[in-house]
Design brief:
CATH class of the largest domain: Mainly Beta
Distance between the termini: 61 Å
CATH architecture of the largest domain: Beta Barrel
Number of strands: 6
Helix content: 25-40%
Shape: elongated
CATH superfamily of the largest domain: Nucleic acid-binding proteins
Number of domains: 2
Number of helices: 3
Strand order of the largest sheet: 2-3-4-6-5
Radius of gyration: 22 Å
Structural class: alpha/beta
Length: about 160
């Protein structure tokens, strides 16, 4: 009798375990389906279109912040007139200035915010409030204005994964 009960519990456990795995696979597939593959230029020209969505793009690391190390700028491979800010988040310790010039594929959530470019930037570094905005950010704003992109709309990526190529 004990053997029969143990066998029943084992079979019931196996059924519950196997049924529990199926929704996870579907959920993983749905998440992968939601990634929008774009160029950096497409993201910057219409950032509100992709606000809050997971995007993937290729580029060249143009600059890794030397002050806080928590962000970098990525250019399209064939056009250094454009760049997008990538917030490194959990990957902060995996990047340094040696990566500048490397090809990268980034995946992350696109965020936008309106900012007053005449006021000190929100992205200033903790150790020197009001004292530093990366030169590459200032250069990017000037280039954006030249290219007809509104620099007041700050588009950036919260990095979820990457691949150095």
């Amino acid at each position: 009798m004990k053997t029969r009960t143990a066998l029943f519990v084992l079979i019931a456990g196996m059924l519950m375990f196997s049924c529990g795995e199926q929704p996870k696979e579907k959920e993983d597939k749905d998440v992968a389906d939601e990634v929008v593959s774009l160029s950096i230029i497409d993201i910057l020209k219409d950032p509100y279109e992709y606000e809050g969505k997971t995007v993937s793009f290729d580029g060249i690391i143009n600059h890794v912040c030397r002050h806080s190390g928590d962000k970098m700028r990525v250019n399209p491979k064939d056009n250094d007139d454009y760049s997008i800010l990538v917030m490194l988040g959990d990957f902060i310790n995996q990047f340094d200035t040696d990566f500048e010039g490397e090809a990268i594929t980034c995946r992350g959530v696109l965020k936008t915010e309106i900012r007053d470019i005449d006021e000190p930037a929100e992205e200033e570094h903790e150790h020197a409030p009001g004292d530093h905005t990366c030169e590459t950010t200032e250069e990017a704003i000037k280039k954006m204005e030249k290219l007809g992109i509104e620099p007041e709309i700050r588009a950036y990526i919260e990095l979820e994964s990457f691949e150095i190529k």
